[in-house]
Design goal:
heterodimer, A: 298 residues, mainly alpha, 11 helices, elongated, B: 307 residues, MetI-like fold, 2 domains, flat, transmembrane helix (chain B), MetI-like (chain B), nickel transport (chain B)
């Protein structure tokens, strides 16, 4: 009954343009030309990743000993590597690997970090202290070193890279969400919900979590760039994907011996990593300008 | 001031304690029998038995931890499986080169980063700003190992100006520290820009301009100085990024430092070396963060009052 009458009300007001945060966001985000172009680029990459096996012109694993280390040409647009494998096809398959590894690890890290951060900020007290001290401990293995330590324990391989990059993301997400939660907790509507006897879980997810979303969106975007760099660094160091896998970091690592004679083997995958990370960082910058009024500079 | 320092030092002690426990447990985290791992692949059953005895793996775990810490505090980090040398000897020749490398990277990155950030802020939305910010966002997106390889190709292979790596004195530090610092330089530049833009909108800057101070005096003496406080924090936090990056950069340049030792040891499963190297990196990072915190409180006395 209630909801019906509200709907009616909305219809009568809808003569005036209705305020919608999504529309508002879209309007502002489209003005961020650079970030907009970067998003189109990322969408294309996602498409390439999904369609990879269908659009790759050659088999990315199949060696061709008649065409070793060929420079870019009409038949091999990005040249061939030391086994005569088509680099473009390997790049296309690599897009799938890099994007899925980074998406998986960032989202897993986000989910776990968000839950911990929400609980930490909302309940405070000893729980807060335990979670924050644990994240301090994780933080004391700085940056890539935590991921390296985890891979050193679990052994090399792409799955372990995902685990490692996930764990190294958790404390950052937890801190970010905790901060936003502490701020949101002060709102009167949270107090109102509490005084009406709403259960903690409901308050956390219905009232506090939405307040953290905009900072989360910005951070996730930036984090995907970091994750791609971290995963490809681990592979480059020989701790990630196996040597025959068409992963970008692996391609660079196996190609480095041919830098002097066939530099495209190193330059092409490097450009792929660079442009992809750059695109995510540019989107992150654009999102920050739109979503976070505090850091607006113009 | 002294009270604040003591308080901060006391705060990191429990963290160091937990980190040491983690480091101690490292061997136990690895799937499999620790004694067999340490004895190596080709060890006989008797060897494994001896190692178990030697490491005290039959003792209760708290006793093992106490003897581990006892050894650690005496500078006994165990023996490398690969070389048979004491781990502390292997570290002693590699520790300082890594410190110099991070130090050089930090210095050039801070100077150039501050410069680019300040120029971008002063010429906001004009071409120097765009140029500076394009450089900065590219810098954080560049994979360090790729940049390193490109620099080797250009300066070592084609121009023959600098060594590709190794330990040929100061020259060997130039390319690695350039590679290592690129990311930090970019972050410092971006941060300086936004911090300076914020400061330039404050009342005392307006007052300074209104009373007819030269623009250069306003920016350098008043604005930049106050914008430095957050930049110091960021620079300090980024030190961890440098330590992580040094592992990659040292590998690219075959640099004789701690990072490359760590990676080589992982490939060889030289667990005693891996264990102590990770512990050393962690403690180094904790201490740097402590120093940054204290520096920060010197620059900004408000922090001490708040806490």
């Amino acid at each position: 009954m209630n909801s019906v009458s509200i709907d009616k009300n909305e219809k009568t007001v809808s003569m005036q343009p209705k305020y919608s945060p999504v529309k508002e966001f879209w309007k502002n985000f489209r003005k961020q030309k650079v970030a907009f172009i970067a998003s189109v680029f990322v969408l294309l990459l996602i498409l390439v990743a999904i369609l990879a096996p269908y659009i790759a012109p050659f088999d990315p694993y199949k060696p061709n000993y008649d065409a070793l280390l060929e420079p870019p040409s009409k038949s091999h647009l990005a040249g061939t590597d030391e086994y005569g494998r088509d680099i473009l096809s390997r790049l296309i398959m690599g897009t799938r690997i890099s994007l899925s590894v980074s998406f998986a690890s960032v989202f897993l890290g986000m989910i776990l970090g968000t839950i911990l951060g929400l609980m930490s900020g909302y309940f405070g007290g000893w729980l807060d202290r335990i979670i924050m001290r644990s994240s301090d401990v994780l933080f004391s293995f700085p940056d890539l070193l935590l991921a390296i330590a985890i891979v050193a324990i679990l052994g090399p391989g792409l799955n372990n890279v995902i685990i490692a990059v996930t764990v190294f993301g958790i404390p950052s997400f937890a801190r970010l969400v905790r901060g936003a939660t502490l701020e949101a907790k002060e709102n009167t509507y949270v107090e109102a919900a509490k005084s009406m006897g709403a259960p903690h879980r409901r308050i956390m997810y219905k009232h506090i979590f939405p307040e953290t979303v905009s900072s989360l969106i910005i951070f996730v975007t930036m984090r995907i760039g970091t994750a791609i760099l971290a995963a490809s660094s681990l592979s480059f160091l020989g701790l990630g994907a196996s040597p025959e896998t068409p992963e970008w970091g692996v391609m660079l690592s196996t190609g480095r011996d041919y830098l002097g004679t066939a530099s495209h083997v190193v330059i092409v995958p490097g450009i792929a990593i660079f442009l992809t990370v750059l695109a995510f960082n540019l989107i992150g910058d654009g999102l920050r300008d739109v979503l976070d009024p505090k850091t607006k500079n113009d | 001031m002294l009270r604040y320092i003591i308080k901060r030092v006391l705060e990191i002690l429990p963290i160091i304690f937990v980190v040491s426990i983690l480091s101690f447990l490292f061997i136990h985290f690895i799937p499999g029998d620790p004694a067999r791992l340490v004895a190596g692949k080709d060890a006989t059953l008797q060897d494994v038995q001896n190692v178990r005895e030697e490491l005290g793996l039959n003792d209760p775990i708290w006793k093992q931890y106490i003897s581990y810490m006892g050894n650690l505090l005496q500078g006994n980090l165990g023996t490398s499986l690969k070389t048979g040398l004491p781990v502390s000897d292997m570290f002693s020749s590699r520790f300082m080169p890594s410190i110099y490398l991070t130090f050089f990277a930090m210095i050039w990155a801070t100077i150039i980063g501050l410069l680019i950030g300040a120029i971008s802020a002063v010429f906001k939305n004009k071409w120097p700003d765009y140029l500076g910010m394009v450089t900065a966002v590219s810098g954080i997106s560049l994979p360090g190992f790729w940049l390193g390889l490109l620099l080797i190709q250009l300066f070592s292979v084609q121009l023959g100006m600098l060594p590709t790596g190794g330990s040929e004195g100061f020259k060997s530090y130039i390319l690695p520290s350039l590679t290592l610092g690129a990311g930090i330089m970019s972050m410092i530049a971006r941060f300086t820009r936004s911090s300076l833009l914020e400061t330039l909108q404050t009342d005392y800057i307006r007052t300074g301009r209104a009373k007819g101070l030269k623009e250069s005096v306003v920016i350098i003496q008043h604005a930049l100085r106050n914008s430095l406080i957050p930049v110091v924090t960021i620079a300090g936090l980024q030190f961890g990024f440098l330590l992580g990056g040094s592992v990659v950069v040292e590998t690219v340049f075959s640099f004789p430092g701690m990072g490359r030792l760590l990676i080589d040891s992982i490939a060889f499963r030289d667990y005693p070396v891996i264990q102590s190297a990770l512990l050393l990196f962690a403690i180094e990072f904790i201490i740097v963060n402590l120093v940054v915190d204290i520096l920060y409180s010197v620059l900004n006395p408000k922090i001490q009052i708040q806490s």
